[in-house]
Design brief:
The chain is of the alpha/beta class and 433 residues long. The chain folds into 3 domains: 156 residues, NAD(P)-binding Rossmann-like Domain (Rossmann fold); 155 residues, no CATH class; 89 residues, Alpha-Beta Complex (Type Iii Antifreeze Protein Isoform Hplc 12). Helix content is 37%, strand content 17%. The chain is built from 17 helices and 15 strands. The protein has a 7-stranded parallel sheet, sandwiched between helices. It has a 4-stranded mixed sheet with strand order 9-8-10-11, with helices on one face. A two-stranded antiparallel ribbon has the order 12-13. Strand 1, helix 1 and strand 2 form a beta-alpha-beta unit. Helix 6 crosses helix 16 and helix 7 packs parallel to helix 10. The termini are far apart.
């Protein structure tokens, strides 16, 4: 790959976006980061200067961006549409963590023939199946990224399936799970690692892992064993032994599930539990120190987030390949639950704040019961009081007017309505793990 042969634009300039910029500029000569769009220009400038580049040009027009690219000068802008529309840019990396704004970015990028690489499991878990369908129709790649847990899991899943082992559980290893964590409880940790308290809280309260596991389910055809997943405590348990914490007899018989454990060693990382039916192959696996089977554990003991994002760019642009993308209809949704007692008239706050946490639920159950996706819940006004841990429904809220995310979600629900009407054999447990 020639130096700078792939030109990309970055939307967002937060903690993770600046890491992506640093990695591309300093370690990936085959990719050229030509521009960053952000609401505030200073973090965008910092992303370039932290990587040793000159202070970038500030542009506010298509002509200005084109001139900067032609001169080989990095550019920053408040106008993200310039990046999506620029003919010189082949791929857009979206790293805002938003819903409505990110949806507009992705739709515009697809419309203008750009490959889209997301570091935004929240958007993908809300309307990803629809966006993937739109990208397919436009002949471009829509993908979440390598490095973050879902991409790492899918790489491992493909490896396991590729050697003839049938994956039955895709898992994540968490260090903490407490659905009532909020920005106040997480402020010290956030300061230590130079992150935003609400982002850290969304990891701790289970919302983030619910989205990550949902997009894995949507990419593999797996589901969840129950609402909220099982999420057993695995303190002191080696990852090779976590299978004993799950009801594997029922899991092995189906299409497989996504789930997580808290506290297994080594952490952080991801794992895949798989079954080998062939007794001769089980003999070989025993020789290779994987145990007697028929259930085996494969794991990756790390995820390197922004370091691997350029791999996803190259996969998309050079090979037309997605690191992780929905197969078709959604299999798992992330629904909103009350983090505290909620009062009628209140406007629901954002992920990782004080009012809601997310729970992974089967998509057909969420559709049948009109459960409110947490990606839609943000900004809604409550019609009635709700107790802590209540799962919200569409009937509990008034949606804001004019949001793109609502239109896309309605389009997705209509597109896949036949798939979402499949009967559920047994009611899922309402309590979280």
């Amino acid at each position: 790959m020639e130096k700078g042969s792939i030109r990309v634009g970055l939307i967002g300039a937060g903690f993770m976006a600046r890491g992506i910029a640093l990695q591309i500029i300093t370690a990936v000569p085959g990719i050229q980061l030509v521009a960053i769009a952000n609401r505030r220009l200073e973090p965008a400038r910092q992303a370039f200067t932290d990587a040793g580049q000159a202070v970038p040009r500030t542009v506010d027009s298509a002509f200005g961006l084109r001139a900067a690219i032609a001169a080989g000068a990095p550019a920053v802008t408040e106008n993200w549409r310039l990046l999506c529309e620029a003919e010189e840019i082949e791929a857009i990396i979206e790293v805002t963590g938003s819903f409505d704004h990110a949806a507009a970015v992705v739709c515009a990028a697809i419309e203008h023939g750009k490959h889209v690489i997301l570091m935004n499991a929240e958007l993908d878990g809300t309307v990803g199946p629809l966006l993937k369908r739109k990208a397919d129709a436009a002949g471009v790649v829509y993908t979440n990224c390598d490095g973050d847990q879902p991409g790492v899991t899918l790489n491992l899943y493909r490896f396991v399936r590729g050697i003839g082992v049938r994956p039955v559980l895709c898992g994540n290893i968490k260090g903490l799970h407490d659905p009532y964590r909020n920005p106040t409880t997480q402020i010290a940790f956030a300061r230590k690692w130079k992150q935003k308290p609400h982002m850290v809280a969304s990891f701790a309260d289970g919302t983030k892992i619910s989205f990550e596991q949902a997009i894995i389910a949507n990419a593999t055809g797996m589901s969840v064993g129950r609402r909220g997943m099982y999420g057993p405590n695995a303190d002191g348990v080696r990852v090779e032994d976590v299978a004993k914490l799950f009801p594997m007899d029922s899991i092995i018989a189906g299409d497989g599930i996504v789930d997580y454990v808290v506290g297994a060693d080594p952490a952080p990382g991801v794992f895949v539990l798989g079954v080998m039916e062939n007794p001769i192959q089980r003999h070989y696996l025993a020789l290779y120190k994987l145990g007697e089977g028929p259930l085996y554990c494969f794991y990756t003991p790390y995820h390197l987030c922004h370091f691997e994002v350029p791999n996803s760019v190259a996969r998309a642009v050079l090979f037309g390949d997605a690191a992780i993308a929905p197969l078709g209809a959604p299999r798992v949704d992330v629904v909103a639950a009350a983090k505290t007692d909620l009062k009628a008239g209140a406007t629901l706050d954002d992920l990782g704040h004080y009012m809601m946490y997310g729970l992974a639920e089967k998509a057909e159950v969420a559709s049948r019961d009109r459960l409110l996706p947490i990606g839609i819940a943000v900004g809604c006004r409550l019609k009635r009081d709700l107790p802590r841990d209540a799962v919200l429904t569409y009937d509990d809220v008034e949606l804001p007017q004019g949001r793109l995310i609502d239109r896309l979600r309605a389009e997705q629900d209509a597109l896949f309505s036949a798939d979402l009407r499949k009967p559920e054999a047994e009611p899922l447990m309402a309590a979280q793990a």
